[in-house]
Write a structure and sequence with these properties.
- With 383 residues, the protein is mainly alpha-helical.
- Helices cover 70% and strands 0% of the residues.
- It is built from 19 helices and no strands.
- Helix 1 packs across helix 7 and helix 3 crosses helix 4.
- The longest helix has 30 residues.
Length: 383
């Protein structure tokens, strides 16, 4: 029965991976023009021309967006909210036609995901087949589809998370600084990995990661003091725009019932509460790293489907715990989350993804405690 179930789950993963490849490869030109990549590409054009504050000025950004995506292909009111330094790769890509740049960005993102898997295997080795299965799982994951079809930099976050995990095992300040810089592209996911370094008492790595993140987050100052405040304003504006629709965190469950301002403050309060709880719970275990990565995604004030690609890192850590006997296999629950996200893309306004993720995290937390409790008497007798 177990082998039959394993074959069925593998068949479902392969089917989802095939569907994902079809969705990505066959994405129509109109969809590419209306993607988030167009916003970042337009900001990149302004940066390349030396206008360092213009990406955060909606009128100027909107004019460029209309030029690169004519005939109303994208809403010119959509803001650019990334740190200025995160726009530099888009500035380089803006030397190419939009469609060519989009496809190149997809290829680079796939390469970064492969690198993230390789770094995780180096940091916490699993059986030799694990990286191949991880790549298959990534292809089957809805967040990967969303990342590649929107041209979002979420693969940078997954790589940053993998680098932070490797920094637990390798003494490299450059590695830690790079991890912090990549995670700061979407800073709501940064504190979880800083907390992981704190829990492991990796003080120099924590300082390096914080410095790398700080340099990226302060990069809008290159255009003047107003650039930093404009970035923060745009980030909050983007957050309010998605509180109700497709927000795959807790605030997405009840944000629609609240005024936008109240929902924003509640989302921030939930997020800060979880971060405080993680700091208090911090201890030197792989289990904490997996919990921190998952809980930060759930508590994030802004978590669209593509953002959940960062869950690839805690998923790997959970597989390490499964290998060590501290957790049951996570494959069925990963499939449950993936199907929930797929439903959210085509279902009702109330997202079921955060409900599925909460149930999964709660169940695995209970399983972890049960298994650790069963181990203690055996360890006491052995002692």
């Amino acid at each position: 029965m177990t082998r039959r179930l394993d074959r069925a789950m593998l068949a479902l993963v392969v089917a989802l991976a095939a569907a994902g490849v079809i969705v990505i490869v066959s994405q129509p030109a109109a969809s590419r023009l209306s993607s988030d990549f167009t916003i970042n590409y337009s900001a990149g054009l302004l940066i390349r021309d030396g206008y360092l504050t213009a990406p955060y000025q909606q009128a100027e950004l909107g004019d460029v967006m209309r030029r690169v995506a004519p005939d109303g292909a994208i809403d010119p009111r959509l803001p650019f909210s990334l740190p200025l330094a995160a726009g530099l790769p888009y500035a380089a890509l803006s030397l190419l036609p939009l469609d060519v740049a989009f496809r190149l960005f997809q290829l680079v993102s796939i390469g970064l995901l492969l690198l993230a898997v390789a770094l995780l295997q180096r940091a916490l080795p699993l059986p030799r087949s694990a990286p191949r299965l991880a790549v298959l799982g990534l292809l089957a994951a809805v967040p990967t589809w969303a990342t590649l079809t929107e041209g979002q930099p979420t693969a940078w976050l997954a790589l940053g998370g993998a680098m932070a995990v490797l920094a637990l095992r390798v003494d490299s300040l450059a590695l830690a600084a790079g991890a912090g810089a990549l995670l700061a592209v979407k800073p709501q996911y940064l504190p979880a990995y800083l907390t992981i370094l704190f829990a492991a008492r990796r003080w120099w790595s924590l300082a390096a990661a914080s410095s790398g993140a700080g340099l990226l987050l302060l990069s809008p100052l290159a255009g003047g003091v107003g650039g930093l405040s404009a970035m923060v304003h745009n980030a909050l504006s983007a957050n309010q725009a998605v509180l109700v629709r497709l927000n795959e965190s807790w605030i997405g469950l009840f944000g629609a019932a609240l005024p936008a301002a109240a929902a924003t403050w509640l989302a921030i309060a939930l997020y800060l509460g979880v971060l405080v709880g993680l700091v208090l719970l911090a201890w030197r275990r792989v289990a904490f790293a997996a919990l921190a990565g998952a809980m930060t995604a759930l508590a994030s004030p802004h978590a669209l489907p593509h953002d959940l690609l960062i869950l690839a890192v805690p998923a790997w850590l959970a597989m390490v715990l499964y290998r060590d006997g501290a957790l049951p296999t996570i494959v069925p629950c990963l499939l449950l989350i993936d199907l929930a996200l797929l439903f959210d893309l085509h279902g009702f306004d109330l997202p079921v993804g955060p409900i599925a993720m909460t149930l999964v995290v709660g169940w695995y937390g209970w399983q972890f405690r049960q298994r650790i409790a069963r181990r203690r008497p055996t360890m006491d007798r052995a002692a």
